[in-house]
Specification:
- By secondary structure, the protein is mostly beta strands.
- It has one domain (about 10-245): Acetoacetate decarboxylase-like (Beta Barrel).
- Helix content is about 10%, strand content about 55%.
- The protein is built from three helices and 16 strands.
- It has helices at about 10-15, 105-115, 240; strands at about 20, 30-40, 55, 60-70, 80-90, 90-100, 120, 125-130, 130-140, 140-155, 165-170, 175-180, 185-200, 210-225, 230-235, 245.
- It has a 16-stranded mixed β-sheet that branches.
- Helix 2 (about 105-115) links the parallel strand 6 and strand 7 (about 120).
- The protein is globular.
Length: about 250
């Protein structure tokens, strides 16, 4: 059985590990969202090495990039880019977050303190139009991500699936994997033909993150609702026995 082999202490050091002081009891609603999702296969060297041993890697390993331009939220308008490694927690498909970049301080603090995203302030840009999409992320003046996508084709609004997210964070129960779900209510969805122009694995959490082949990409015009956190999982124990309710003491 394949499980992650990353050292937890190293993960905490590599990732901008967040802290959740208390669990929010109300959902977070993001409105007027343009969401670009790109999935790419990675080199095999990243398969187990970037995940804690509580998670199962996928074969082949894959990287999921989500970039959102949010028009309205509890933290105002902002843009965010999230990098996740595909995995399974028990039998459930998930994405383990290795990096997140937010365009405003309020959104950065909100994403960190509410859901445990390892968010950092960066210049996140997302342009979308009738001809395609351009995405860029610059961290401390250095470009760490660039995506160019063309030839949008309409799809049914249910044709793209979004897996749940696992964030390594300090919680009231200790260091845990926080299970973050998101309900995507798309009003318009398009398939894109995308190229990764630039990607910095170190900035996204690990130099082993090397996207090799873009598998799919899409653009959704939608509302995204994040329900309150219900479960967390121990970092060094499989989900079958290591999952805890947030009410657990």
């Amino acid at each position: 059985m394949l499980v992650g082999t990353a050292d937890v202490a190293t993960l905490v050091e590599q990732l901008a590990t967040a802290a959740i002081d208390a669990y929010r009891v109300e959902p977070v609603v993001l409105e007027r969202v343009a969401c670009v999702q790109l999935t790419a296969e990675m080199r095999k060297s990243a398969r187990e090495a970037v995940l804690p041993r509580s998670l199962h890697p996928t074969n082949p390993p894959a990287l999921s990039l989500q970039v959102m331009d949010v028009g309205s939220s509890p933290w105002g308008a902002f843009r965010v880019a999230i990098g996740r490694v595909s995995c399974r927690s028990g039998v459930r498909a998930r994405g383990f977050t290795t990096a997140a970049f937010a365009s405003t301080r309020a959104s950065c603090e909100g994403l960190r303190g509410t859901f445990g995203f390892p968010a950092r302030i960066a210049d996140v840009q997302l342009r979308h139009g009738y001809d395609g999409v351009d995405v860029s992320v610059a961290l401390d003046g250095k470009k760490v991500l660039a995506i160019h996508a063309i030839d949008p084709e309409p799809m049914d609004v249910h044709d793209v699936q979004y897996t749940g997210t696992l964030n390594l964070a300090r919680t009231p129960q200790g260091l845990r994997l926080v299970q973050v779900e998101a309900d995507h209510d798309a009003k318009r969805l398009e398939r894109l033909r995308a190229r990764l122009i630039a990607f910095d694995g170190n900035a996204f959490g690990n130099a082993l993150l090397v996207p090799a082949l873009v598998v799919s990409s899409s653009l959704a015009q939608e509302t995204v609702v994040f329900p309150p956190i219900r479960f967390v999982c121990k970092v060094d124990e499989l989900a079958f026995t290591g999952t805890e309710s947030v009410q657990a003491k």
